[in-house]
Amino acid sequence: MPSPLIPRAVTPAVTGHRRPRTRLVVFAALLLATVVDVPGLGAQSARAPQPAPSTAAAQTPTPRPQIGGIFPHLSVVSEHEPRSEAGIGALVPWADRLWFVGYVAHIAGAGLGLYEVDATMEMRRHPASVTGTFANRLIHNPSNQAIIGPHIIDTKGVVRTFPEMAKHRLAATMEHLTDPAQLVYFLTMEGLLFEANVKTLEARQLFDLVKVLELPAGTRPHFKSAYTDAGRVVVANNTYDERDFKRELAGGRLAEWDGKTWTILERKPFVEVMGKAWAPDTFGRPIYATGWDRASAILKVFRNGAWSTYRLPKGGQTFDHAWNTEWMRIREVQTERFLMDLHGLFYELPSLSYDGRVWGILPVARHLRMVPDFCSWRGLLVLGGDQTDRSVGQPQSGLWFGHQDELWGWGKPQGWGGPWWEDRVEANALSDPFLMTGFDKKVLHLSQQGAPSVKVTVEVDFMGNGRWHTYAELSVPDGGYVHHEFPAGFSAHWVRLKVSQAATMTAQFVYS
Which segments carry the region annotation Disordered (predicted)? Predict the structure, then answer.
């Protein structure tokens, strides 16, 4: 289906005997039609000529064109030299403005910084701007300040800057374990963990996580997110390239720190960690972490003192590199409602986790847009971007403004993935649950090597409460292959597999 970002133009038929003037009139009409009303934002439609404006009216801002939710003037554009990248790394509504920071690649580039947008859609690059690689944001409730990039902003819009943090590529800012009123943590993309004082702006390094988390020699650290809750700091590193795909090394990490000891939870690439720390315990108060391996996307959930693992389809294979995930966030876009971006798919993700279970994950849309961050502002859903880098011209990226329910009209949810990709699986082993609900046509592909025959039991959890029921049993010969097409209309929240014999198994679901 056509992209929802740029409406398809309908070109009237023009016969050969018409004069060029007619073409100009048609073109002008189409051009004017792209100026669309956005209530409350000061934009006006181009209609019939208006009376001459009064003196007061003449002082109103010039209407800004917007096309499919995109205002061309609300974009970040880096300088030509040095030329690298121009992404929008973090957004936050604060101090009667929409604030965002741009980022360049590897701190190489120029012309970006801290930006603010007001309700009339006027944008200003703040004088305190620092060009760098920043994708962090945190509302520090004890001091009533917003932290974005290396900057800290009070409720009046006064901006200060952490001098030390302006020198680093910033991936995350999170609450402090022992002194949350005065201190916060900063995580850099290189794996340095700092604590910083929100009053004095002083910072000191605590750890080099490349060493602490035992990243293999020869890998590039690429830490992407961190979050504090339940007495732990959880960090994500998404190092991944062809060597990880071929299982020659494992550079990714999901790890946690309780203030005393670091624990490695996964040696796979993880890109986001998020939760709702201030919510009452009656909500369940889960911590979500997203990542992937070559078999599928991964969602890990911390609840009641333990981590659970779920698998979800990939909406595209183009994200299977550390650099290609910029930044796949989980954000609260409506009160108590999360929107999750994971491997080319948007999902509705509940903030609830009753009885230790994840309830009601639902795919919303498939998309191609790189979305480093998103937020709600003035009743609109705002998506950041990372559209062009030095390889295609002058690096630049823009914002998309719309309503969250517009996402239902984007690409149809579809994808592929599963629990195993040429994995050694022991007899009677159960796979991780794989998401099933919200997709249309479903097929399961199975193959195995190493056993004369393997019986694969397909189980479904149609309630989402962890109660499993046998759906079917499929026999797969050694070196053989079988597939199963689920009936039209059949679905469940989760599906999992169990094997009767030890073998090297591949199990992939394709949803279309």
Answer: 43-64
Tell me: do 282 and 214 sit in the same domain: yes
Q: 0.85 exceeded by the pTM?
A: yes
Q: 221 and 174: one domain?
A: yes
| Residue 442 and residue 351 share a domain | no
Task: Please report which helix (H) or strand (E) contains residue 496, including its range.
Answer: strand 494-499
Q: Please name every residue paired with 184 in a beta bridge, in sequence order, or none if there are none.
A: 175, 196
Same-domain check for residues 358 and 219: yes
10-residue averages of pLDDT along the chain (512 residues): 36 35 36 37 34 46 86 91 88 98 82 94 96 97 98 99 98 98 99 99 99 96 97 98 96 98 99 85 87 98 94 95 91 91 96 83 95 97 90 90 96 98 98 97 98 98 96 98 97 98 98 97
How many CB atoms are closer than 10 A to CB 142?
14
Is the Cα torsion angle 358, 363, 369, 374 positive or negative in sign?
A: negative
Q: For residues 148 and 258, state if they share a domain.
A: yes
Does residue 57 belong to any structural domain of this protein? no
Domain presence at residue 55 = no
**Inter-residue contact 434 to 311 (CB < 8 Å):** yes
Element (H, E) at 210: helix 209-212
Q: Which of 202, 111, 102 is nearest to 161 (CA)?
A: 202
- 76 CB-near residues (< 8 Å, 6+ apart): 86, 87, 88, 102, 112, 115, 396, 397, 398
Contacts of residue 314, defined as CB under 8 A and 6 or more positions apart, other chains included, come to: 292, 296, 297, 320, 343, 344, 345, 415, 416, 417
CB count, 10 Å around CB of 18? 11
Retrieve residue 106's tokens.
């590897």
Does 432 lie in the same domain as 308?
no
Of 309, 310, 314, nearest to 296 (Cα)? 314
Question: Would 58 be classed as within a structural domain?
Answer: no
In contact, 421 and 437? CB cutoff 8 Å: no
- CATH code for the domain in which residue 489 is found: 2.60.120.1110
- The answer to whether the beta carbons of residues 206 and 260 sit under 8 Å apart is no
**Is the peptide bond prior to 99 cis by the omega test (within 30 degrees of 0)?**
no
Taking the CA atoms of residue 103, residue 105, residue 108 and residue 113 in that order, the dihedral angle to the nearest 10 degrees is 0
Range of the domain at 284: 138-394
Q: Is residue 322 helix, strand or coil?
A: helix
Q: Are strands 481-485 and 330-334 parallel, antiparallel or unpaired?
A: unpaired
Residues 238 and 353 in one domain: yes
Among 394, 426, 448, give the residue marking a domain's end: 394
